[in-house]
Amino acid sequence: MNPTFDTLFYDGRCPLCTKEIRTLRRLQRGQLIFANIHEQPEGNRNLPSHENLLRRLHLMTSNGEWVTGLHANVRAWGHTGFGWLFKPLLWPVIYPIARRVYERWADWRYERKYACAFGVEKT
């Protein structure tokens, strides 16, 4: 059976993101590929927009499907021995709360760091 390789797109200019990526690189089992968003050509028709990649975590599965946000995070950590710790975030009782927390954090991080770059006014 061939191993499946997922590609995780991350913000290489975010200190918190790069810290987590360093940890994932160290702990993963060799089936997770890391792609710095800032090293991807803008306008690549195979990728979501640069802005969307920065707004939410994106992971492309080995069969070309996109997984985003909290689901991408859980799937990425599934490539480590600690994936079981993240799976409860997707349980029906926990998921709505975990998703809201993730999305609020992601929106705050994006607005704080990138809103001006894409012509979005900060409020």
UniProtKB/TrEMBL annotation:
Highest taxon listed in the record's lineage: Bacteria
InterPro entries to which the protein is assigned, alphabetical: DCC1-like, DCC1_Trx
Gene Ontology terms, MF aspect: protein-disulfide reductase activity
Name of this chain's protein: Thiol-disulfide oxidoreductase
Species the sequence originates in: Marinobacter profundi
